[in-house]
Amino acid sequence: MKWFRSPFFWFLLALLTTAGLAAIGPQEKTLGENVRIVYLHGAWVLAAEVFLALAALTGLLGILARHGRMHAWSQALGRTGLVFWIVYLPLSLWAMQANWNGLFLGEPRFRIAFIFAVTGVLLQFGLAFLSHPVFTSLANFLFFAALLIALRQADYVMHPPPSPIFSSGNLALELYFIGMVFLTLSAAYFLTRWWLQKQT
To answer: Is the pTM of this model over 0.85?
Structure first.
């Protein structure tokens, strides 16, 4: 049962569990069952941001401490964060189409997401080619810093703050979304472990 010990198996299991939980999520009086896509979209982008942030943090620590293992973690975390960031784009389009009957590709935060997805893919290919741990850690730190600045400066159009879930006053809904986030983060963790396993 070697497959049972594989991080990729647990990654797939966490994904299936997340999809199952999304399918039975609570409905909302305005969006109906289509709000479940919004729940999944929200949990997914949060996981992407968390893992890109962790890639930046471990990369910075690796540079400052000159610790090779930190560089390895930064690379794995960065790849995971980018995978989740890329998948977030079609989820975002799906949420737009299902809930607003159209695609608003000019939406500021979606435009930024697309630009950084393309940049991230090109960056990771370049870093894989160079195969230099310090460059990878530095690039992960700078990539997340640039993303953070871009998102902070972007206008809110279809993503109005504060969070509609945590401002709803519905405890059951909030706990459900927290469960979605936990499962999505778990999937990202197991994917990161798989990347680390591939490095050895």
So the answer is: yes
Strand partners for 185: none
**7-23 vs 171-199: helix crossing angle, rounded to 10:** 160
Burial class (CB in 10 A: 0-12, 13-18, 19+), 75: buried
DSSP 105: T
Paired tokens of 109: 């935060």
Nearest to 43, CA basis, from 12, 21, 13: 21
Q: What is the identity of the amino acid at 107?
A: E
Rg of the chain taking only CA atoms, in angstroms: 18
pLDDT tens-digit map of 143-168: 999 999 998 886 655 555 556 666 66
Residues 16, 183 contacting (CB under 8 angstroms): no
Helices (H) and strands (E) in the chain, counts: 6, 0
Distance between CA atoms of residues 103 and 88, nearest Å: 15
Residues 43 and 6: their CA atoms lie apart, in Å, by: 24
Q: What is the pLDDT of residues 81-106, one digit of tens each?
A: 999 999 988 887 776 776 565 555 56
Instruction: Give residues with Cβ within 8 angstroms of 48, minimum separation 6.
Output: 81, 82, 84, 85, 88, 188
